[in-house]
């Protein structure tokens, strides 16, 4: 019998990342058939029409002009001076509610979600999110001994499922004294869904009902895709609702530079917190900075500098917003083709508003995706369905894709 060395609580930990596996299949197909022949709907990055990952020109220009010390020097665990204010400005724009706010740098949005789970849920407790979700939430919870539970994102009419959200919040709160809820909105991965103003009101009502019973309630809003969700202040208008909340309701934001600034590999983001209690925000600062020091010490200095430069300079900010708008419009054109054709061929895609992905529920998503390979179309086989990346497929290639996906569904 061979000896294994990992600690006993690591047993069974093996990453099964279906999206990275699908990416490997795409690379193989491109090597065999050439990139023109392949439709890569697996990629979680905005791509140009030729399929290459895009970088916003303003970001590229600033990055190339950085002095060498921006690449080699350490930064403080909390983030560079000025980064906190830049993050807060990038998160809220003109929709900052009247409350105490702070932010601590993180290794991307992933790091922000990690720090939220580590500091605002108890070991062994449940963390709640929707069934359609970014797959990494599960590993982020189980890595540090939390248990991810889900509510149904959609009801039978494909509206936000308030009753099931409420039922799950209430059920979990009967078992534990605090609850962390993760909501990825606007432009949810993998469906492109965004909570409406009324749906946000319902979420806050359900949360407040538990807070009145003395539970400590935290909502983490994962805004990874907010910069491609629509008009800057419209898509942030829900943030004004977080005014006058009781001290035992904390709102967190997972901010990421990956999508909005096309700096996926540079690993920069932040966890921001908002509360009516000064003490809660002071505590946030201490515990989260401690987590940052213990997890990664400090994060990418150059990326933090770029965000600070952009947020402090009106002209650069306008340049960035123009470029983000072009990306948004490009994705809208691509997704528009998919949605129109899906409706024509009766492919039951979930309600998409904006963002990088459209999803279609499937019992055997792997079989559907495998079948699609015959047409050299590649998509992400998620547990609940097929995810297609409208962010990475040109309008030309998009034409006809929905019908081919429908055909694969019909065969499987
Ligand atoms: N949240 C969601 C929903 C995502 O899809 C991603 C990335 O794919 C992230 C957060 C975090 O991204 P990063 O760690 O690259 O900032």
UniProtKB/TrEMBL annotation:
Cofactor(s) it depends on = pyridoxal 5'-phosphate
Fill in the subunit field for this protein: Homodimer.
Which Pfam families does the protein's record reference? Aminotran_1_2
Biological source species: Megasphaera hexanoica
List the taxonomic lineage.
Bacteria, Bacillati, Bacillota, Negativicutes, Veillonellales
- UniProt KW keywords: Aminotransferase, Pyridoxal phosphate, Transferase
**Protein family membership:** Belongs to the class-I pyridoxal-phosphate-dependent aminotransferase family.
Q: Name one GO molecular function term.
A: transaminase activity
Name listed for the protein in its UniProt record? Aminotransferase class I/II-fold pyridoxal phosphate-dependent enzyme
Tell me the ranges covered by the Aminotransferase class I/classII large domain, including all copies. Answer: 52-360
InterPro entries documented for this protein: Aminotransferase_I/II_large, Asp_trans, PyrdxlP-dep_Trfase, PyrdxlP-dep_Trfase_major, PyrdxlP-dep_Trfase_small
């Amino acid at each position: 019998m061979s000896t294994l060395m990992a600690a006993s609580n690591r047993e069974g930990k093996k990453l099964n990342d279906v999206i990275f596996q699908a990416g490997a299949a795409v690379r193989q197909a491109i090597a065999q058939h050439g990139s023109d022949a392949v439709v890569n709907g697996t990629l979680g990055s905005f791509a140009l029409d030729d399929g290459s990952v895009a970088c916003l020109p303003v970001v590229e220009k600033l990055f190339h002009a950085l002095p060498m010390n921006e690449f080699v020097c350490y930064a403080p665990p909390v983030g560079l001076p000025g980064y906190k204010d830049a993050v807060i400005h990038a998160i809220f724009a003109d929709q900052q509610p009247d409350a105490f706010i702070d932010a601590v740098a993180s290794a991307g949005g992933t790091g922000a979600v990690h720090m939220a789970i580590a500091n605002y849920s108890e070991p062994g407790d449940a963390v709640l999110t929707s069934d359609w979700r970014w797959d990494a939430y599960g590993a982020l919870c189980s890595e540090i001994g939390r248990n991810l539970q889900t509510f149904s994102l959609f009801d039978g009419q494909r509206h936000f499922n308030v009753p099931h959200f409420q039922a799950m919040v209430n059920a979990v709160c009967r078992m534990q004294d605090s609850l962390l809820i993760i909501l990825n909105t606007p432009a949810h991965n993998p469906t492109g869904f965004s909570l409406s103003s009324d749906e946000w009101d319902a979420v806050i009502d359900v949360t407040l009902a538990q807070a009145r019973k003395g539970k400590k309630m935290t909502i983490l809003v994962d805004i990874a895709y907010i910069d491609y969700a629509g008009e800057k202040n419209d898509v942030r208008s829900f943030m004004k609702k977080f005014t006058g909340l009781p001290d035992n309701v904390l709102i967190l934001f997972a901010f990421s530079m990956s999508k909005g600034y096309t700096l996926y590999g540079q690993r920069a983001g932040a966890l921001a917190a908002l509360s009516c209690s000064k003490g809660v925000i002071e505590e946030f600062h201490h515990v989260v900075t401690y987590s940052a020091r213990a997890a990664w010490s400090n994060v990418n200095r150059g990326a933090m500098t770029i965000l600070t430069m952009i947020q402090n300079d009106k002209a650069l900010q306008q340049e960035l917003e123009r470029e983000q708008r072009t990306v948004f419009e490009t994705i809208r054109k691509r997704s528009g083709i998919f949605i129109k054709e899906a409706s024509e061929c009766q492919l039951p895609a979930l309600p998409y508003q904006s963002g990088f992905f459209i999803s279609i529920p499937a019992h055997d998503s792997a079989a559907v995706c495998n079948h699609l390979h015959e047409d050299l179309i590649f998509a992400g086989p998620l547990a609940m369905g097929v995810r297609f990346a409208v962010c990475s497929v040109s309008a030309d290639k998009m034409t006809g894709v929905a019908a081919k996906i429908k055909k694969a569904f019909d065969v499987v």
